[in-house]
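testing teh design pipeline on a random one, pls ignore if ur not involved
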């Protein structure tokens, strides 16, 4: 049984119901229902502007206090994120869900070594000292980064390493869900596969769930259990990966798939990708 199948019975870690995000009168992201369960990878795909990132921002409680009007419900680790205080949302971020962005190097403070950056993130959640060092060391091992990477500055690692480090920080925080917005689109194809393989292994070995936003259906086909297709702010198709990628009758999904020549390849294991 795969981690995804095992997760199907467990209670959801993220549960979205009747979510609608509006700017003015325009609904930019409407998601009737979406669950992420332990060990599952749920992918959100769709063209630029379809509302994917907005969905992630709502899940992380990052739209509260902005121009966005949010209705419906987003429960993360048992906490309702819609309309919640920044203090509460801030404590859920990191502990119940962690965000990994497209280009981690851009968002890492360039004046701090990676080890210090990780310890800062942990300290915000009350994890310090020997416990923090132990967690960081274990997380670096989990993403196959050398221990001495903690002594380097963000500009001293590659894009792929920076992305592994971002994932390691999420792992060290103990977040059961990693929300990733185009985590590999700034990386070249080999490194993309490597980073996805890291997420996939965390899923199998630690049951970490992944909510993955991606343009790349070929990539999604190799890692996702469940796929949500968005267009113009609405969900136009959703289902398990096999159904959406191979048996969907939704014209928009078919059109997206027709644009992907690589689809149909088997899932690559991390060992195949990295030669480890
Ligand atoms: N702060 C804002 N004010 C007004 N409109 C916004 C704001 N943020 C996003 N939007 C609009 O919401 C829509 C959805 O944006 P979103 O960033 O979620 O799309 P996306 O699917 O992530 O696109 P991409 O693939 O290009 O990242 C877009 O039309 C965007 O212009
Ligand atoms: Mg986006």
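output:
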């Amino acid at each position: 049984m795969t981690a995804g199948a095992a997760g199907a019975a467990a209670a959801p870690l993220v549960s979205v119901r009747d979510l609608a995000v509006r700017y003015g009168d325009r609904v930019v992201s409407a998601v009737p229902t979406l669950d992420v369960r332990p060990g599952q990878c749920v992918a959100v795909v769709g063209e630029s502007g379809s509302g994917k990132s907005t969905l992630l921002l709502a899940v992380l409680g990052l739209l509260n206090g902005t121009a966005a009007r949010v209705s419906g419900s987003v429960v993360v680790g048992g906490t309702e994120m819609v309309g919640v205080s920044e203090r509460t949302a801030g404590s859920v971020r990191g502990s119940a869900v962690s965000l990994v962005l497209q280009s981690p190097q851009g968002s890492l403070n360039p004046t701090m070594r990676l080890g210090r950056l990780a310890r800062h993130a942990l300290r915000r959640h009350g994890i310090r000292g020997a416990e923090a060092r132990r967690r960081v060391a274990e997380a670096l091992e989990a993403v196959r980064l050398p221990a001495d990477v903690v002594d380097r500055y963000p500009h001293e690692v590659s894009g792929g390493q920076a992305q592994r480090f971002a994932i390691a920080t999420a792992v060290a925080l103990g977040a059961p869900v990693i929300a990733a917005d185009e985590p590999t689109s700034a990386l070249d194809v080999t490194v993309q596969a490597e980073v996805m393989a890291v997420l996939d292994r965390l899923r199998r070995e630690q049951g970490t769930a992944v909510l993955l936003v991606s343009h790349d259906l070929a990539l999604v086909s190799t890692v996702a259990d469940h796929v949500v297709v968005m267009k113009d702010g609405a969900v136009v198709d959703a289902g398990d990966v096999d159904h959406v990628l191979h048996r969907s009758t939704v014209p928009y999904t078919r059109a997206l798939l027709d644009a992907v020549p690589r689809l149909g390849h088997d899932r690559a294991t991390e060992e195949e990708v990295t030669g480890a």
